[in-house]
## 1
Amino acid sequence: MRNLDSQLGSFGLEPPKVYRRDQRTSSSNASQQRRRAQNQPRAPHEKVKRQNKKRRLKKQVRRAIYGFALGVCIVAVIVVLSLTVLFKIDTINITGNEKYTTQQIAAVLPIQTEKNLFMADTKGAKEKLEENLPYIYNAEIKRKFPSTINVAITETSTVYYVKNADKTYTLMDDRLKVLEEHAAKAPKKAVEIRKAALNTAVAGKTAEFTNEKIQANLLKISETVKNVNMKKVTAIYSQDINNNYIVFDGRITIKLGTLDKAEDKLYSALAAIDKLNQTNPKAEGEITATSDKQIYFTEK
């Protein structure tokens, strides 16, 4: 065979590759074996691993469900205890009151001792105090754990009034909340609201004027006077959106025109009054401040 191969090689011919048939056969057999191996069921130890993994996953899920249920139960118990046994109100502190006694405020306050601190309706209590006791300007009600309610009262004095047809007076604060409906006289330092008729006036509620636009203007004027901290105001009034007035010291009427940039206009008018007072402290007339840059005085 070797001689034959050498002779063929001498003629430039490739010897027959008989061995390749064997190689293909062995390769084919190997592929068939691999396919059979893939089709055969997995070894027993792999199946056991897969089953153990599933068991561990089920245990983890059960533990998570159990933990969640336990947490819900604990929270429910805490909530029930908090609303029934714990956090009962044993102290109510009321401070800042002068116009009304502590007993008067406590009688109106809907929050009582022995009630649950969480169940206390602080917003409703605030509204009830401010409505039923009109001179309470603001009632700040806060919970203090574990068992205290603090009520901080801010009272108001009369700021504005309207003279009624029966010669009584309706007294109001700077938000136009009615303090008294038929007072016999107006306080000396109160500001008169002129040229405006009331529709309804109920103590503890915002006054309602017959003209809603005039009412909105009056409220805006009131806010402006408060923000500027203007002193010696004796009257305010509004005729329409373009004609709004503030009376200073009963002798000088400030005409603001519209209420756009009302604070700037009022500052400019007060600066003009300061200069006017230096030369004529008893001057009477009207300051036109329809623009914060053009101010002029018309003497009466």
## 2
Amino acid sequence: MAQIYYDKDADLNVLKNKKIAIVGYGIQGRGQALNLRDSGLQVIVGQRPGGPNYEQAIKDGFKPVDAQTAAKEADIIQLLIQDHLQAEVYKKDIKKYLKKGKSLVFSHGFNIHFKQIVPPKDVDVWMIAPKGPGSLVRRQFEEGKGVPSLVAIHQDASGHALQEALAYAKGIGGTRGGVFQTTFKEETETDLFGEQAVLCGGTSELIKAGFDTLVEAGYAPEMAYFECLHEVKLIVDLIYETGIQGMRKRVSDTAEYGDYTRGPRIINQRTRKEMQKILKEIQSGKFAREWIRENKNGRPNFNKYREDGDKHPVEKIGKELRAMMPWMKK
């Protein structure tokens, strides 16, 4: 079982005299920056001019600066830009300002684990990864609650990296929900596997396969959309709130019986073997090398996949049907 830390295990005073740079004011960056500031800590926002994120930072009362300035002034540098951009920004804007006594921080371990970023040995390197989007991190904090988070220590040059990490977690509200100790390796590999095999890759392909099967059999695409995509949220919400068995007990007995008897025919031994293969590709670094190469080459395959995905019939019918559902509009 993982070690779990709570409010009583963390002391905000550890960070009282330190400046924290949030590099990247996207959804996660905004949530963490606002929570840290509301916890009484000093926050610098590193965000390039232009675009909605820069304007949002100003609207929220920050005075955003470039990444170099943020890294130079801060004692703790949290990188919250996208994975494929982190190494370049680190080398160009942050590396030269990483001095002994500073901390380099992440909310995902990709670039450290796959050695795209190799920090100097005299700085602390740690991770606080909320298990939810930045908007939820912010909302829960405002309600006096917190999103459970992960903590991992990659380098403990100072001897008190864990104390700083837990104080940071407390600053964003994580210790209210519980902070689970892990490693950069475990967080990175399980995160990538979950995305590829279940949450994104597995789910989206299962939806499209179900939709295509019904439409090819002559059923109306509207019916196929409702049964194979629209109602996924209803089931996922039940699983999220009550677990798999809780979901099964809240659907019809017909659906539950079909789940037990037909589900294993879809996710069968062949599927499980492919999952094992995908996991090995992640563990060996094969996927990371492929993704890094894809970005260096201008993303030709990524862009083609996205273009093809936009053209799938489930997207066309879905757009039409969602237009009829005003409660979905923000």
## 3
Amino acid sequence: MPTKHSKRYHNAVKVADLTKDYALKEAVEILTKFPKAKFDETVELSFRLGVDATSGEQNVRGTTPLPNGSGKKIRVIVFTDDAPKALAAGADEAGLTDLMKKVSDGWLDFDVAIATTEAMKQVRTLARVLGPKGLMPNPKSGTVTDDIPAGIKAVKAGRVEFKMDKTANIGVGVGKRSFTPAQILENAAAVLEAVGKSKPATFKGSQFIKGVSISSSMSPAVKIASTEFSKF
């Protein structure tokens, strides 16, 4: 039975041949010509990796600043004994014992959790709550730090975290449809470079990044040519 496509998909294929691969710049230009939704869609870069997803030594994760920000208001909480300092630096909520209890009781209305090194000794007990949501503070992602003002500033300015899922795929937001093509391109290039450089030392395969595509919340994906990531 032939696959049924939405009206939005059929309008998109009038813009470009979605079976082809495109240079990143051209793919971004195509994406910005697709019909828009009634809200400001998130633009995402999707990666298919060649690592062994069952090997802990080949887990891929990291962070990178977006040159033009994410276009999203980032809600940040900080686990710390010095809540006034964290709140003054821009945290949406801060504290330790009371904040931990609030989270433990099911409150997860935030995007990023930061913790001081000392606070992490207690925050580790929230791993079962925060871990599955990708919200657990982690030194590798810069969210375990004793420089709380700098940590908050980096996150609020548009630093994004990426983490491979159980099927060796990664999805990273690189902006909004309201961004200019140049802004999306610059952000996407930064993410592509960051993921490419996160190749595990134990990876011995021939192709770390097997495929990349770019899409927005309501659009079909545009495939990126392998020449854009084959160097990784």
## 4
Amino acid sequence: MVRNKGKIILIASICVVALAVIGSVLIYIYGAEKRGQMAQEPPAATAVPTLQPDEELPTPTPVPTKDPHAGKVRSALTGEYISEKAARQRPFAVIINNIEYANQRQEGTSKIDVLYEALAEGGITRMLGVFQGTGKIKRLGSVRSARHYFVSFAREWNAIFCHFGQTSYAISKIKELEVDNLSGLSAIGGVVYKRDYSVRAPHNVYTSGEKMLQGAKKLKYSTKFNKDKMARHFDFYEDDTDLPSGERTTYVYLPFSAYSTCYLKYDKKSREYKKYEYGAKHKDHENGKQLAFKNVIIQLVKETNIDRNGYQHLYLHKRKGEGYYITNGKRIKITWRKNEEKGTMCYYDADGNVLAVNAGKTYIAAYPANRKTLISFQNKK
């Protein structure tokens, strides 16, 4: 009995082990089949929304483009974008010495926005530089004495007029037009002007934006820009624009006198007119830059000697006249009209509309009408 019982236990144990082995094999085979199926089945596709017939795909939100002129405004003098701080500042107008010796030592002139040139006595020319934003003027000069027609030009821009010396005619015009001025011969002179003794006198007087602003504040002049007090000289195109008509003009020859002759050449690359005087490039010797202008205006004016000293008189009050506007390689005929009492001065195109000009610096030659035939637009070289 005992022997039979042992056999039974052995057989039972063998059966249990066999069943366990068979179960493990079956489990492995089943798992392998499942793994094979998973490997063969493709991944589930991403669901794509089905559009109804009247539906449209949503429009993507555009990324805003950064405004290159953000924080800036257009200058009333040049039409270019400048800082708000500069645009809030009242313009200054400075008499610039332009005899040959002084011309070769001029500084700060490339920072001027509107540059006038007109005859003074003896066939020489002087210039009036009008600009906005004293922060850009580190040194400017040399500064010379006032002439009454330059006072009138400064008044057109409601500018603070800066000069070192003056004629009696200029003093009268300053009083007549009530022009705020900074005279080098007054008590404020030492604040605004300084002599450079490395330059021969009287061509060695210079100023700076900081000094001019300091002088204006000491005299309690308003230094805030007021467009209503400035004449409407011209309007500005929104974009750089070629004149729709006109004569091709890449050279402008302006013989003010036998002594003072300037000319301008058009640079196609910069699209500006580069200035020459005394047979050489007219430069700002502070930075070595040649003076260059987007706009050239020739304002033909009646001119005579006012007395036996040879002082000039330009007929501007309640006057009108002709001239030329030149930009981007072309010129057109224009007219102008001025009234000193009303503070008006404007340029007009051939149709009588206010002249539109390109944004940029402007050169204005107040040129004697009786020398008009000497102006040339043909390069003599």
